[in-house]
Amino acid sequence: MTKENHTKYAILGLLTTGCHSGYSIKQMIDGSLNHFWKISYGQIYPTLKQLVEEGLATVKDTTQTGKPNKKEYYLTSDGKTALQSWLNNPIEAIPTEKNELLLKLFFSRHQHADITINQIDHYLNQLTERYHTYLSIEQLITENLLDQADSPFWLITLDYGKRTTKAAIEWCEDTQEKLKE
Amino acid sequence: MTKENHTKYAILGLLTTGCHSGYSIKQMIDGSLNHFWKISYGQIYPTLKQLVEEGLATVKDTTQTGKPNKKEYYLTSDGKTALQSWLNNPIEAIPTEKNELLLKLFFSRHQHADITINQIDHYLNQLTERYHTYLSIEQLITENLLDQADSPFWLITLDYGKRTTKAAIEWCEDTQEKLKE
DNA sequence: CTTTACATGTAAGACGTTACATGATTAA
DNA sequence: TTAATCATGTAACGTCTTACATGTAAAG
């Protein structure tokens, strides 16, 4: 198995969703992929440059009226092929997601129960906020973007986020009850 | 906020669970923390060394009959204080967990539906396997380790894994149905 | 005239894995 | 004698974030 740089393919994919500059890719990630992928500018710009070097994309300097100049990237046919073949390959093993709350909980016999309950409460708040963010994005997609060809798949990824977050929220509530005894 | 090295605290915590050598810490992680934390030897040994340098732990060379020598690490009172204060601090923002399947799904309009369904099927298999691993560990803890003071908290972290994995499994099944239409 | 949004980029460093290197002891 | 388990460690490399650096253009 050759080592795959997933971030590279994330950007390759984003170039097919109407994003063509580093800046707009970043906006898309922060707005719509945020619950399962995150990329900083420190990765985006070097990766775009690299895609061009590898012949997977082309650049074009464009002038805009009313806005600064920007660089527009477009997939080459090699780039499209690379994206396709990545999409076809089955994903490798599910990585372990680090969870700091569970790590603390694992050692919580050294702690008073009410402190542990507060920790969970804090986590619960963050999960709830996240859940509402998902609902907002869902509404946005349903109302404004149903014309976009990608939107059914975007809704599916959101559904995943909603379901797992809801399960985590319920765990918080039940665990707090358990610890109160 | 000072930057916290979570891995350092993970090891600090593990030194309170009956693990005192790099090797046994690694075993514990692979066996019981695997669903929410992972550490390689490349991190463990340098971190243990660092803990001693910072005065949070002490080392002792020990000889064993029938086994190679090993180094035993024990928390100092400073180490216990450091662990306590880390446990008391509320966790920072929930990090985005990268999910390669969702990333591919996000771009899946470029793919035939049956390939996407296969991807999800592969993911489903991995989730199911993971779920059964959780059940095994749960059984092990319930049967053999109920005397251990930490076990109630270990069961709680397992419960988290089971619930979120189950939600993901159900999402797989429902999404496959959806894509078959 | 100042803030916000648009836009691109780099350097340092943190974090983490993998592969490598070594060696003791036991059981088959 | 060979494989498995126990045991410790490092070097190279990949990935990613943060902070820094720079600049345009619109809107208030």
From TrEMBL, chains A, B:
Residues 11-84 form the Transcription regulator PadR N-terminal domain. InterPro entries: Tscrpt_reg_PadR_C (IPR018309), Tscrpt_reg_PadR_N (IPR005149), WH-like_DNA-bd_sf (IPR036388), WH_DNA-bd_sf (IPR036390). Coiled coil: none annotated. Pfam families: PadR, Vir_act_alpha_C. Residues 98-180 form the Transcription regulator PadR C-terminal domain. Signal peptide: none annotated. This is PadR family transcriptional regulator. It comes from Virgibacillus byunsanensis. The lineage of its organism: Bacteria, Bacillati, Bacillota, Bacilli, Bacillales.
